[in-house]
Amino acid sequence: KAGVTQTPRYLIKTRGQQVTLSCSPISGHRSVSWYQQTPGQGLQFLFEYFSETQRNKGNFPGRFSGRQFSNSRSEMNVSTLELGDSALYLCASSPGAHTEAFFGQGTRLTVV
Amino acid sequence: QQQVKQSPQSLIVQKGGISIINCAYENTAFDYFPWYQQFPGKGPALLIAIRPDVSEKKEGRFTISFNKSAKQFSLHIMDSQPGDSATYFCAASIETSGSRLTFGEGTQLTVNP
């Protein structure tokens, strides 16, 4: 079975721009969660989608948004980028609610 | 109440030794406790997980010990190898929060040859 695929792997954006990251979960998994990883704050939960519905949201500003498609693929969008948004963005897929979560390799976003 | 506290921040162990990483939590609603291993440039990989109905779970060289009354759980790596050198994260989740994981701060493990 293929693992979680995140694209692109690396991104460099300018302050004020917006960015869209993509995640393809493991086949058959219906839950996709997004996390931000930084050296200072560690791994922080952004949001979770299950069957195209946002089921959970972390403590991030409204500039961070996401969606899930009918094939369970998910995208997250960050608008009006700030320098502090530079981070590794990780996607995790789970077969259902409250089960094992498997992470992708992440997208490294650098905001300059 | 949603925090998971992890210690130590860094750990150096000799090859063949036992590595022990500890985590503590406050929220008694947490009912799923996984451990993840992360190598540089990679995403976290699920190592082993436990639910509160058991006090210990072993998979190969990795063992989770769980103390419900103390609200603590720990990862033991037996016969530690240089290839185990990585960052380890404990995490916890609540059934009513779906797949949302609350992570500890991470432990940088170095196993010297």
Brief characterization of the structure:
The complex is a heterodimer of chains A (112) and B (113). Chain A has strands at 5-7, 10-13, 19-24, 31-38, 42-50, 53-57, 64-68, 74-78, 87-94, 102-103, 107-111.
Shape of chain A: globular
Q: In total, how many beta strands of chain B?
A: 11
Average pLDDT confidence of chain A is 95
Spatial gap, N to C terminus of chain A? 37 Å
**Stretches with pLDDT under 50, minimum 5 residues of chain A:** none
Strand tally of chain A:
11
The major sheet of chain A is characterized as: 7 strands, mixed
Secondary-structure element series of chain B: EEEEEEEEEEE
Task: Explain this structure.
The complex is a heterodimer of chains A (112) and B (113). With 112 residues, chain A is an all-beta fold. Helices cover 0% and strands 54% of the residues of chain A. Chain A has no helices and eleven strands. In chain A, the strands form two sheets. In chain A, strands 2, 4, 5, 6, 9, 10 and 11 form a seven-stranded mixed beta sheet that branches. In chain A, strands 1-3-8-7 form a four-stranded antiparallel beta sheet, with no helix packed on it. In chain A, a hairpin with a 3-residue loop joins strand 4 (31-38) and strand 5. The radius of gyration of chain A is 13 Å and the shape is globular. The mean pLDDT of chain B is 95. Chain B starts with a strand and ends with a strand. Chain B has 113 residues and is mainly β. Chains A and B meet through strand 4, strand 5, strand 9 and strand 10 of A and strand 5 and strand 10 of B.
